[in-house]
Amino acid sequence: MDTEYYQDLIRPLVEGRKFILAGAVLAGYPMLVKQLRSLGAARPFIVASSRGTGEVPLEEDAEWAILDLTASDVIEDIRVTAAALANLAPKVEVAIDAWDPEGSAVMLGQPFYMGTHIAGRSVWGRRRPEWEALEDKVRADAVWDAAGIARVPSEVVAAAGDELSLGHHWLDRSLGTAWAGDAKEGFNGGAVCLRWIRNAADADEACVFFAEHCDRVRVMPFLEGIPCSIHGMVFPDTVIAFRPCEMITLRPESGNRLHYGGAATFWDPPDADRVAMRDAARRVGEVLREAVGYRGGFTVDGVMTEEGFRPTELNTRTGAAIAGILAGVRDLPFGMIQRALIEGEPLEYRPRELERLIVDSADEHRSGGALATVDRHQAETDTRHLVAAGDGYREAREGEEPEATLEFGPGALGGFVYFRPDPERTPVGPSLAPRAAAALAIADEIWNLDIGRLSPARSVR
Predict the structure, then answer these.
(1) Fewest CB atoms within 10 A around its CB: which of 161, 189, 206, 454?
(2) Is 420 contained in some domain?
């Protein structure tokens, strides 16, 4: 089984059709545009939140409008973008109508736009509201219990100082506690509504924050170990699971805000833990299918602790690590398979063959990196090359072969930093987080970004 089978499977759903791509930065679309065009799609129309850092599609392959939206954090960016798509500027609607005068186009569903239409065109492959609702952090433990997955003790309490403080003292195992807010204001992620409580100052800030933004908060022990994730995918009659990925979650020297830096696939857990994580994903997928008729990809995020994998949150969508998992099969129309599943298309998906194709490729082709967003406008992309120096990096000198690159470019939150290690020169097995922390420290030095000192999680398994 290879990617050609799935290209042929999906082609009849794509060939000759017009698609609207919306919700991400323009630089996030070149690969999808190339894939759609290779499957026979007409030239798509992109509604981009901003330009973003990196290459953009070729003008002969796509038409686009850039909304030039700004936000203060990743969750505000998601919400501002969704609101803008629900109420498109008239000039954008005019441009879409000129591109699609017959009105035959559909928007390809993306997980953070819950509308059924855009510019009078329907959304194809839209995530259902009852699926999104399960991402509420205070609901996750019920899913783990239904799936029979081991978890650490936790308490869901009112977002008030007394109950939060009591939960902290009850559950602290010496490393502090992690507080995760509910979805009162809508979807949250990217560690925006997560606080690591180590002292009274941490708790005081968190109590004020959660009282303003949430009704309930889940309190659990802060877990030492590698933050990690496992993807599953639900089909009508089976659930498949991919390989574990590392979540690059770095720790500040002080304060209660963890730094979410993306995902990578270089890290390998022990073989028995890999099997356990994949089994956990399959169990969760079965629960999701039975409970809410779920279809498509999802993730179980957690920590590889001394006792093994312990889940912390559920994402009823594909996660950030999916790009790294698919790095070796870039011509696989995975996103279109996902949307076809959601739409109930009666295709011969061959899920076990798909699972084997993706897992084998992901084991062979490692990928990923780390990111940071900064509150500083950057109009152009500045790229630097790095080589190893002791436990960290330094800028490469003329004639030296780089081991990684650093990019600082435009982003919806101001500036966007991305660390990209060369897969051929990056060790497989150990956590990438120490290298990521070192690279972001170099970025801080080069561009004076005020990221601050960050440290990686400690491997304890």
Answers:
(1) 161
(2) yes
Domain around 161? 153-222
pLDDT at 160: 79
Residue 74 has a pLDDT of: 83
Measure the CA angle with vertex 247, ends 246 and 252; round to 5°. Answer: 130
Does residue 13 share a domain with residue 69?
Answer: yes
266 exposure class (CB count in 10 Å sphere: 0-12, 13-18, 19+):
buried
Q: Is the dihedral of CA 145, 146, 150, 151 positive or negative?
A: negative
Which residue type is seen at 84? A
Please state the domain count of the chain: 3
What residues of the chain score a pLDDT lower than 70?
Answer: none
Residue 31 and residue 331 in contact, taking contact as beta carbons nearer than 8 Å: no
Here the tokens at position 286 are 């079965």
Q: CATH code at 199? A: 3.30.1490
**Residues sharing a CB contact under 8 Å with residue 281, sequence separation 6 or more, in sequence order:** 230, 231, 232, 239, 241, 242, 298, 300
The one-letter code for the residue type at 114 is: M
Query: In this predicted structure, what is the pLDDT of residue 400?
Result: 94
Q: Which of 261, 295, 302, 262 has its CA nearest to residue 131? A: 295
At 251 the pLDDT is 96
Final residue belonging to a domain, choices 177, 205, 222: 222
For residue 436, the model assigns a pLDDT of 97
CB 234 within 8 A of CB 316: no
List of E strands, 253-307: 259-264, 296-305
Three-state SS at 218: strand
72-97 residue pLDDT tens: 888 888 899 999 999 999 999 999 99
pLDDT for position 392: 80
| pLDDT (0 to 100) of residue 72 | 81
Separation in Å, CA 450 to CA 91, 218, 255, 375:
38, 30, 14, 9
Phi, psi of 250 (to 5 degrees): -105, 155
What sign does the dihedral 100-101-104-107 (CA atoms) show? positive
pLDDT value at position 186? 85
d(CA 18, CA 459): 48
Is 8 a member of any domain? yes
Nearest Cα neighbor of 270 from 304, 231, 310 is 304
pLDDT of residue 67: 94
Threshold 0.90, pTM exceeds: yes
Buried b (16+ CB within 10 A) or exposed e, 399-432: eeebbbbbbbbbbbbbbbbbbbbebeebeeeebb
